[in-house]
Design brief:
The chain is an alpha/beta fold and 466 residues long. 42% of the residues lie in helices and 13% in strands. It has a domain at 107-348: 3-Layer(aba) Sandwich (Aspartate Aminotransferase, domain 2), CATH 3.40.640.10. The protein has a 7-stranded mixed β-sheet with strand order 1-7-6-5-4-2-3, sandwiched between helices. It has a 4-stranded antiparallel β-sheet with strand order 8-9-11-10, with helices on one face.
């Protein structure tokens, strides 16, 4: 008889590798509990190993795992308490557990996958309940870009039936969003075949929200010119300043004119669950579709975004198909019939685990605390003679600048870079109305009031040295 081959992974001691992995995860989590005095740098030896050629022979699993951990430890992580540069996550332990299981089983939701489908449906319902949205359909995607694209593809098919088969065919159409909407809206409009010129950037008011009167004017003019409105995209938490468009008024306009209303709540959506700011989100429940990124303010790791619809059938109209390699015999649809993506992991498991382990009330209280952090920074800026707010915060984003000598734009750009070089705090510069400023965003549940005070002290200390 032919000798049986050994398992190709027999050289890996699973128990030993998992023990090492467990040690590294605990070390990482412990390091996230408090700010570090500075960011870790790559060692010359590790840098050299990262430049070697493709390995042909098997390597030592423990050494490979140790190098991987060192690389990640020397990288910028949003899980750290004083990471406030961009809208990051928290690296919740629940997400790590879910990620490990998800990768181990490698379930694909493109077709019928058994129990995982029920878990995904439950996670969708939980997210919808958390933000107050009347869910009738939805799917998890790789991020806000894909979720917005998914919603706008469905909106295009509803406004211009048959477009997925025939193309736009010269039919003029438009999508409306505020001047500070995320660029993913423009990308989505380009991808669905309307072209960037079809985007109508609506002016903002003094609170950096879409002006409803200007939206009405744009819709009226386009209809007069024979242009079909495909969708109005309202933003619930702009990336730049955290502004929330007047959703209820926009919903009135869309209902009166029979236009699809999509809400890009990728960042801000979870705050709809917090009583102190819930009124900002009135009207969210009247949208046709909503995007929320769980890998932002819900704390779980990338990628875990959700697009939710309040109407049935729109996703299938935009994406359903019947191919020989994925027939529909015995089932109404496959998972892929409601999404752009084929190979689709169980991204929902991270959010599902977070709700199961922490509970909605805990997540809600964590979000409320980050809102308080933003107000603490805003109050300190208002009280400080050498700082000024460049925009009043609506959620957890605070934009401000230091009033140094000379060119303030140049001064604040230098300050932002100096803070980054210092390494205790991670901030980024931003442009608000053409003025360079510092932008701090709080979405990390690990950040404490003491951490916020340290952030302000570091910025003040460095600002005075420039």
């Amino acid at each position: 008889m032919e000798k049986l081959q050994t398992h190709p992974l027999d050289f890996i001691d699973r128990e030993q590798v998992l023990e090492l992995l467990s040690e590294q995860l605990v070390a990482a989590w412990n390091s996230f509990d408090r700010p570090r005095p500075q960011e870790t740098k790559l060692t010359p030896a590790l840098r050299e190993r990262l430049s070697v050629a493709l390995p042909e022979a098997p390597g030592n699993p423990q050494e490979s795992l140790a190098d991987a951990a060192q690389v990640l430890d020397a990288s910028v992580s949003p899980s750290r308490p004083l990471y406030a540069a961009y809208i990051g996550s928290t690296g919740l332990e629940a997400g790590v557990l879910a990620g490990a299981l998800c990768n181990a089983y490698d379930v694909n939701l493109a077709s019928s996958a058994g129990a995982a489908e029920l878990l995904e449906e439950q996670a969708l319902r939980w997210m919808a309940e958390f933000v107050g949205f009347p869910l009738l359909d939805g799917t998890f995607t790789s991020g806000g870009m894909t979720s917005n694209l998914t919603a706008l593809t469905a909106a295009r098919e509803a406004a211009l039936p048959g477009t997925r088969a025939t193309g736009v065919s010269g039919r003029p159409a438009a999508v409306y969003c505020s001047a500070e909407a995320h660029h993913s809206v423009v990308r989505a409009v380009e991808v669905i075949g309307l072209g960037a010129a079809a985007v109508r950037r609506i002016p903002i008011d003094d609170h950096r929200r879409m002006r409803v009167d200007a939206l009405v004017d744009a819709l009226t003019q386009d209809r007069r010119d024979g242009v079909t409105p495909v969708a109005v995209v309202a933003t619930a938490g702009t990336t730049l300043t955290g502004a929330v468009d007047p959703l209820a008024q926009i919903a009135d306009v869309c209902a009166e004119r029979d236009v699809w209303m999509h809400v890009d709540a990728a960042y801000g959506g979870p705050a709809a669950s917090v009583p102190t700011v819930a009124a900002l989100f009135n009207g969210l429940e009247r949208a046709d579709s909503v995007t929320v990124d769980a890998h932002k303010w819900m704390g779980v790791q990338k990628s875990c975004s959700v697009v939710m619809l309040s109407r049935r059938g729109a996703l299938e109209s935009a994406f359903a198909h019947d191919e020989g390699y994925m027939p529909h015999a015995g089932i109404a649809t496959n998972g892929v019939d409601g999404t752009l993506e084929y190979s689709r992991p169980v991204r929902s498991l991270k959010l599902w685990m977070a709700f199961r382990i922490y509970g909605a009330a805990t997540l809600r209280s964590w979000i409320a605390r980050t809102l308080e952090h933003a107000e603490t920074v805003a109050d300190a800026v208002r009280a400080h003679p050498r700082f000024e707010l460049t925009a009043e915060p609506s959620l957890s984003v605070v934009c401000f600048r230091h009033l140094g000598e000379g060119d303030l734009d140049e001064h604040n750009m230098r300050l932002a870079h100096a803070v980054g070089e210092d390494g205790r705090v991670y901030l980024a510069p931003a442009l608000v109305d053409g003025r360079t400023c510092l932008r701090a965003c709080f979405t990390n549940f690990r950040t404490t009031a003491d951490d916020v005070r340290e952030l302000l002290q570091v910025i003040e200390e460095i600002a005075e040295t420039l």
